Amino acid sequence: xxxxxxAAPAAATMQDDEVLEARNVSVSFPIRxxxxxxxxxxxxxxxxxxxxxxxxxxxxxxxxxxxxxxxCGKSTLARAFVRLQPATGGSVTLSGTPIDNLPALELRxxxxxxxxxxxxxLNPRRTAGSIIMESLVVHNRGTxxxxxxxxxxxxxxxxxxxxxFDRYPHExxxxxxxxxxxxxxxxxxxxxxxxxxxxxxxxxxVQAKIIALIEDLRRHLRLGCLFISHxxxxxGYLVDRLAVMYLGRIVETGPVERIFANPLHPYTAAxxxxxxxxxxxxxxxxxxxxxxxxxxxxxxxxxxFHTRCTKRIGAICDTVLPAPRMVDDREVRCHLYNEAxxxxxxxxxxx
Amino acid sequence: xxxxxxxxxxxxxxxxxxxxxxxxxxxxxxxxxxxDPVITMMxxxxxxQEAVDRLREEMGLNxxxxxxxxxxxxxxxxxxxxQSLQSRDPVLPILLDRLKAxxxxxxxxxxxxxxxxxxxxxxxxxxxxxxxxxxxxxxTLSGISLPVFWFGMILIVVFSVYFNIFPTGGMLSYSxxxxxxxxxxxxxxxxxxxxxxxxxxxSHMVLPAVTLATAPAALIAxxxxxxxxxxxxxxxxxxxxxRGLSFPMVVARHVMRNALIPVVTIIGLxxxxxxxxxxxxxxxxxxxxxxxxxxxxxxxxxxxVVQGAIIIYAIIIVFVNLxxxxxxxxxxxxxxx
Amino acid sequence: MTHQTIDAVPVPSAGGKTxxxxxxxxxxxxxxxxxxxxxxxxxxxxxxxxxxxPLIAPYEADEFTSGVLVGPSWEHPFGIDQIGRDVFSRVIxxxxxxxxxxxxxxxxxxxxxxxxxxxxxxxRGWLDNAFMxxxxxVMAMPYVLLAVLIAAVxxxxxxxxxxxxxxxxxxxxxxVARAATIATARLQYVEAxxxxxxxxxxxxxREILPNILGPLVVxxxxxxxxxxxxxxxLSFLGLxxxxxxxxxxxxxxxAQRYLTTAPFLSIFPGLFVFMTVLSFNLLxxxxxxxLDPKSxx
Lengths: 351, 337, 297
Description:
heterotrimer, A: alpha/beta, 8-stranded mixed sheet, 4-stranded antiparallel sheet, elongated, B: mainly alpha, globular
């Protein structure tokens, strides 16, 4: 399998309708039992509900963003897409097939991930080249000479050189390490790439370069990208569609410019208001975020945001979970829009 | 309060499980020793098969293993640890008797070790960097590395043979007479107002106790030093000094109470070391304790005795660890919540 | 903001730090600690003695010379023992035994302990619980007791002594390996390895094991000293090496009877045990300090 290295983007092929989709995905972690065994059996086992009933899809060639604060479950959701964290409810499908049914190696060839921490995501005892080649070794591709050739090719593709092949991670800067991480992910020629805050640990000046690299690769390889971040400015610049997450649920989805221009959900509006630099072209809501994020263990009933919402209507916000509604071509879960039609069930169409 | 109770309970259950597993382990081990004890008991002469079988049945050694184990376990709970294969005497009374001798030695060793260790460690910490400190560090490192039995032998050579201050072994000199009251010889000599015996027993105890106490004392000294060093830099010490308290006062009042916490833990956990080391020390000094008796039993394949000894050791160690565990929660208020 | 093309990234100027360079750096840091160097020096000396023992020792281990129970002299620096053998030669030859006992015993503990520890630390769950409970049980007893027990069961001999000591050390190695594995498995490169599809086996061997070597090396060094000590103890009690093997502990056992008449018999073998164990401890302490300066005593 040869990676396309030509400068011109590949022509749109029938690969376009491949979709990586989360259908009603939930992920819960039971908390380890406390107390002695006979005495604690009656108590219901508390669980951390990291992700609840998420519907989200990424098409090949599309860049979808997930925005939210720490603890909202976006990292867990990212891992569910890659099957590093099995979904406890619902399923993630790849062009219709649940990923749980796919053999591991095949899944890994289609969906890959770039992690957040450039310092801990590379094995310090391996050289850069060895790290990149490992993917090929695991999938049993090619002879060792071929693998080396491909790895060097990949190094150059991400902006490094062959001289870097034998160096150890501690000899690289943070930005360079992320390049290596990207190379490792892309050498398998996946169709989808999940990026969990890949630039959050980097200096701002380096961020821009890595983002540029990602964007370039996405266009050339027609990657379907899921970009996770808490930085709204970054997301606004990079993604096509955006999903806003709060306390394990997606509260608003839609094209990113429209969301920024007119945030429907009060949380989205508050997030934008709280962002230090005003987002270009966005309408800032004057109501800021108050209070703290409630715990993931005792998730409040009703709308997850009702404890901090400044636009709270009444008791309905406290007791009833808002259904996803369609407003224009966006989806939002908020009782403010209860006149709008209910969003269609997930079947591979717009999430 | 419920939290404390459940913690204690879980630790207790844990300890019991450990003991149970240990008993199975010990039992299995003893059955695995090669050599048929029945034949050994009969002197290995050519005896008729029926006599062997009869004896075997009499002793219950022909029942399936788990039955033997369960009946043995049941007996243990009744305080019956079986009979020695050599002497046909009941095991438990002998072992308890020997245990008293071991206990005396261990207690003396613990006292010596702890007191010396704590004092040395504290001074070393206070005078950090001085020659005393360096010397202590070196001595303690040597102490941990020291082969106990060799050190004992050196002590014997120096003090018994050369200087002739202390006897080379045993518990009592031939000429001393001591009436039994409790079984603890030192105690008995006090109770019977037998001053000569008291001095005699004590002089027999010095060398073995010092030998036994060396390695733990070294460890205690090191731990104390580290712990005091850690505490001495904390702010409340400076606060005390600022308030006008003299340095020794501060040390005594504030430093020691907090510094001693990990030290007490170590002292408690070292019980295992004392017991293990007592096997070697008792053998070397012919001290009539549990360790020496157990070694003799091992050599004679007298496994009821060995089993019993191990069980006693295990109960003591597990029990002491449990107490240390629990009291640690009480002593250190930080751990309590 | 325009999309930029990938710019060239300069090659880092520092020379590549290969394995040997890191080794040299570690060694120089070790050299700063005099005590550790002293230990290392003695151990090297001991290793040389052990390797060249047959050449150095003037007599055979069981060769009879003139005289019995004669004190140290120029001809016999450590004296002559109760049967007439040269103590010096026996001590020298005994170094081979002691060192090999140490290495063999620690190898047993290392292989089994680390395997158990890694498996427990990687997979967690009930496997972890079960292992650790078992380890707790074994560790509840002082090692001397346990070693005595095992050696008693297997029968008194040097091989069985090695096995006994090896088995007794397994729980501690398992603990160290488990803790290190848990800390490492948490890091993202392990997750990344899983993400590209590596099997558990591959992850354990290629990602985790190389990264937990540090604490294992330290612990192995310290354990070597203790293993040699344990072997001597067992022999002294009659359960390990049997006479006439010139093992240091066995020699001390024989010397016991002659404590009053020939004290020199006990001094030298035990001295060697002491120096060996001390050296291993010094070296191990030094290694531990380089790897983690915070854990200083």
